[in-house]
Amino acid sequence: MKQSDQQARLSHLRKRAEEKLDSEFKQMTETLPEDIPRLLYDLRTHQIELDMQNEELRMAQHDLVEARDRYIQLYDLAPIGYVTISHKGLILELNQTFVKMLDQVRAQLINQPLSAYIVKPDQDTYYLFVSRIRKTKQQQNCELRINICNRSMTATVSEQAGVEERDWCWVRIESRPLFDENGEVYKINLAVSDISEYKRASEQLKHLATYDQLTGLPNRYLLETELNQRINAARRFHEKIAIVFIDLDHFKVINDTMGHDYGDILLQLVAKRLSCHLRDYDTVSRFGGDEFVLVMPQIHDNNEIVSVVDKIIREFSNVYNLKQQEAFISASIGISIFPDDGTTFGALLKNADAAMYRAKDAGRDRYCFFTQSMNHELRRHQMITSEIRLSLAHEDFSLYYQPLIDSQSGKITSCEALIRWHQINGELISPAEFIPIAEKSELINRIGEWVINQACQQSAEWKAMGLSDMRIDINLSGRQFIQDDVFRVLKHSLQTNHLQPEDIGIELTEHVLIQADEINLSNLRSLDKAGMQISIDDFGTGYSSLSYLKRFPVRNLKIDQEFIRDAPTNAADRSIMEAIVAVGHSLGLKVIVEGVETEQQHRLAQQIGCDLEQGFFFHKPMPASQLYTILAHQNASPN
């Protein structure tokens, strides 16, 4: 009842009592002696006052009961649990929210130790929490897990519903100590909040941040964290750790030919197979893309590593079933060892990666241990990469041109543009060294664009000088070719220099051509139709598939110099060359032989019917000015 309502009711009662008292006193004065009415009046007045006080007490008691009930309701309906424990840790009082947290009956919890309802691994946390309260006499808080007593009874239903159920929940406990007359803690009020959802969300976020969502393996971040921990432990106990870097061979072909969905399935299957070959204390993670890293601690000798890696390589030889389609894939593996090959996460991963690339260069589908010579090679690669960037900016590259000779007439019919790199210090770096390095980055695209533009400019200059029929052939790398941009660059350079497609030719290796998709093939067909000559370079060293010759719009086959080298004295090499010439001619292609260095080789090329020859026997690669002089003399000759 509101205080204003109480005051109004009391005033009304007092007024009625006063009116009644005045009426009774008037009657008594008329019938009783003079002093008796006054005494009765005073007595009656005291009685009314007592009645009023009783009424006030009754209303106060009613308000107190209402307040108590309201407090109990609020206490029980509070969204967080409240519990009061004694100095011995016994439960003295608790609200219904905390009772529900424990899934118990209130009466069964009174005078029970709160510690009995805390999961055992967290009880030390609880005892330390209470100890800090008694010692500091200040508010404290902690996070721990409490048992849910009857959860097992409902677990089956929850599991069927697809909800994860646990027999404990996470809570946050905040305290407020109560003190006796001596200032000592004799009770502690605790506010208990259920933070299970928060913890679950935190775990999910942590999992998202540390695990690869496709394969379920630890990701690069968790790999670095764990490897650093393993390194610290290995350093203390003088142990070795092997870092095994695994890269899938030709994974892009799976994605391009079958689709990324199939590629994802393959990665999942690879992750499962790798996990099957781990020792109990090994871990495997997905480093990124088609790369995986295996960490093998407690290594005593390399035989332990080889045993595991051999199993992995054999596992890759088995077929992978992708949505009822079969796929085969291999892996190149690089291995570095702590502390021999590095003492930090970055150094070990870098060196394992270098060993993996050495395995790829050696033919793939194999493993390779890191060696210090690779470290020197890495530094050399880094130096060359930096120098390439500077040289592109300063235009330190140049093009040399090696003529192609008609086997019968001996005349120059076209030439091949070959890049040369003379550094400021005079050092000549071979293309065989810097081109493979450039192909591992975007630098090969920049070099390729420079070569295209320089070759087109040179062709335009020669035309202006009267050499109108000298085609310049350009080599395209695999990285260039699979990017549509190279065709745009080529067409733009032709237009800028007012050239026709037949003024420039392109050379591609078999390995590059097999990576071609339909867009690449469409671009090649457009160039071929416009008159540009396309040659297969180094034919015979790759797949040498006749189906490729039929599928691709090529006009020339260039036989690799490996075959002409010993062909004059080696019947097998001669037979291979004769077969290539026969196949090429039957398909209407011109056959070119590279690497002709002797008179015998030249005579053999003529005998078996090669159309064109190229090599040091005729001309070495030379600057454009030198080749112009030779061409001008050839054109001036009557024959």
What does this structure look like?
The strands form 4 sheets. An 8-stranded mixed barrel has the order 13-14-16-17-18-19-20-21. The protein starts with a helix and ends with a helix. α13 packs across α15 and α15 runs parallel beside α17. A hairpin with a 5-residue loop joins β14 and β15. Helices cover 52% and strands 21% of the residues. The chain has 639 residues and is α/β, with parallel strands linked by helices. The protein contains 24 helices and 21 strands.
From the structure above, extract its key features.
5-stranded antiparallel β-sheet; 21 strands; 52% helix; alpha/beta; 639 residues
How does the SSE layout of this entry go?
Elements: H1 3-31, H2 35-77, E1 81-86, E2 91-94, H3 96-102, H4 106-109, H5 123-136, E3 141-147, H6 151-160, E4 168-179, E5 185-194, H7 196-210, H8 220-237, E6 240-248, H9 251-258, H10 260-276, E7 283-288, E8 291-299, H11 302-316, E9 320-322, E10 325-327, E11 331-338, H12 345-361, E12 366-369, H13 372-394, E13 397-406, E14 412-422, E15 428-429, H14 431-438, H15 443-464, E16 471-475, H16 478-481, H17 485-496, E17 504-509, H18 510-513, H19 518-530, E18 534-539, H20 546-551, E19 556-559, H21 561-566, H22 571-586, E20 590-593, H23 599-607, E21 612-613, H24 624-636
Parallel strand pairs: 11-12, 14-16, 16-17, 17-18, 18-19, 19-20, 20-21
Antiparallel strand pairs: 1-2, 1-5, 3-4, 4-5, 6-8, 6-11, 7-8, 9-10, 13-14, 13-21, 14-15
